[in-house]
Amino acid sequence: MEKKIDEVIYRYGMENAFEGAVIGFSGGADSSALLHYLKDRCKCLLAVHINHMIRGDEAKRDEELCRRTCEKYGVEFKCVEVDVPTLSKERKKGIEETARDERYRIFKEILNENPQYKCIVTAHNSNDNAETIIFNLVRGSGINGLSGIKPAIDRVYRPLINCTRDEIIEYCSVNNIEYVTDSTNNDTDYTRNHIRHKVIPQLLEVNAGFLDSCARLSEILRQDEEYILKEAYKITSLINNGNIPKDVACSLDGAILVRVLKTVSGENLDYKSVKSCIQLIKKWSTGKMVNLEKGITFKIEHSYCSFIKTDETKSRTFNVKLEKGINYIDELNIAIGVNEELLNSDFCEIGSVRLNSSQIQGTLYARSKEQGDSVKSKGITKKLKKVFTDLHIPSHLRPLLPVICDDLGVLAVPGIVARDKAFDKKGDINIRVYNYGGSNEKEK
User: Fold this and answer.
1) Rounded CA gap, 315 and 101, in Å?
2) What number of other Cβ atoms are within 10 A of residue 7's Cβ?
3) Which helix (H) or strand (E) holds 431?
4) What is the rounded distance in angstroms from the CA atom of residue 39 to the CA atom of residue 121?
5) Starting from the edge strand earliest in sequence, which strands make up the sheet with 289-291, in order?
6) Which ranges in the chain are annotated with CATH 3.40.50.620?
7) How far is Cα 62 from Cα 69, in angstroms, rounded to an integer?
8) 319 to 215, 258, 328, 366: CA distances (angstroms)
9) Which string of DSSP letters, residue by residue, matches 251-306?
10) Less Cβ around it within 10 Å: N or C end of the chain?
């Protein structure tokens, strides 16, 4: 088995583990075998045991065994308690998922705070890999999920990934390695345990080499995924400001487009979200949009499509009474000059309009665009949404345009449209809109 571990370590470039490593040490057969292998090979080794506070006295028993084993080997030991059941309820996630998230959070914190350790090593084996593949298959995962557990990713190494559980048990027996068995591993109410005890044994009856087949599948799919990602990166590296040009989006192969969309969005979008985006791209109707998970909206513009954070537009609503002089709208980083110009080079004029004061009713103010806003211009009453669409103004920019109003409604969107009668090229109210970079420029 040690030859298998050596092969994995050198094949996947894990050699720096021998300089210093943080090992996840549960006290089970897998991590006990890995600790035994590393104890005389690592210059600097820290065994971290996580008590998930699920199994009461049994968890204390595991902790004591881990502590005793590390003392015997002369390995530094650290135990961390995490109330996983409580966190699971608060986050509305399963026990297994919460426990995994917390383990890796703790491991990475220790790694980042202690430069003598170069990586995290965990004791995932080929059985774990097969379980993961089946678990992801049932969930309807794509290539990435079906490729199983990666041997090495983001300074997390799995040296036992090609070792079977039977080989590990035999290794412990031959080397007189003491280990504990987690009673929850036999609880088939947990999905992974059901796969471990019910599904995999049946598959092994069909094919005795099933675990090796899964390992081979993992390697093949990882290579395919790496190639597709490289091709997708060639596209995303040419995309500016997250705007995917229409000709690019409509011409991409589906496998590449899926990964481009995920990369540009900045989120690991689920299948349903990606499918919704692709459907919009195929129809390509300017102004159409779909709200996705994690507060993201995908929008089709005239010549490109893009993702925006839904919360970004919601947080920029405002309503400001306009006075003569300079009026700052911090929500948009703009300034509105009423009969006054800004000559500071830090400000850039982005629109202007002249109005006749005799045609203004009541208070003059600026606000964010509201649903249903309309204006009568050139004898035709149009909704602002239609005006913006006809002028091909990107929908994610529309909430960032100030709407000038009086008590009767919309007067103008400077530089874009203005209400009949109120608009006057020689009008006595000159409104200019300036863009500035933020508070520093405003102070200047």
Assistant:
1) 31
2) 12
3) strand 429-435
4) 12
5) 244-245, 304-309, 296-300, 289-291
6) 2-220
7) 11
8) 61, 40, 11, 6
9) HS-HHHHHHHHHHHHTS---HHHHHHHHHHHHH--TT-EEE-STTEEEEE-SSEEE
10) C
Tell me how far apart the alpha carbons of residues 170 and 188 are, in angstroms, rounded to a whole number.
Answer: 25
What is the dotted CATH code of the domain comprising 238-312? 1.20.59.20
Contact indicator for 265, 281 with CB cutoff of 8 Å: no
d(CA 85, CA 65): 23
Alpha-carbon span 223 to 391, nearest angstrom? 46
AA identity, residue 352: S
| Closest to 85 in 3D by CA, of 98, 103, 68 | 98
Token duo for residue 377: 């211009």
Instruction: Return d(Cα 325, Cα 338) in angstroms, integer.
Output: 5
Neighbour-count burial of 246, counting CB atoms closer than 10 A to its CB (0-12 exposed, 13-18 middle, 19+ buried) = middle
User: Domain 2-220, CATH 2.40.50.1070 — does that match?
Assistant: no
Q: Could you list the pLDDT tens digit for every one of the 444 residues in the chain?
A: 999 999 999 999 999 999 999 999 999 999 999 999 999 999 999 999 999 988 888 889 999 999 999 999 999 999 999 999 999 999 888 888 899 999 999 999 999 999 999 999 999 999 999 999 999 999 888 899 999 999 999 899 999 999 999 999 999 999 999 999 877 777 776 788 899 999 999 999 999 999 999 999 999 999 999 999 999 999 998 888 889 999 999 999 999 999 999 999 988 888 889 999 999 999 998 878 888 877 788 988 889 999 987 655 555 688 999 999 999 988 788 899 999 988 776 678 888 999 999 999 999 999 998 889 999 999 999 999 899 888 888 766 777 789 999 999 999 999 999 999 999 999 999 999 988 754 444 444
Find the distance separating the first CA and the last CA of the chain, reported in whole Å: 69
Beta partners for residue 412, in sequence order: 404, 418
Q: Enumerate the CATH 1.20.59.20 domain ranges in the chain, comma separated.
A: 238-312
| Residue whose entry in the numeric block shows the structure tokens 């490729």 | 147
For residue 99, give every residue at least 6 positions away whose Cβ sits within 8 Å of its Cβ, in sequence order, or none: 50, 52, 54, 82, 84
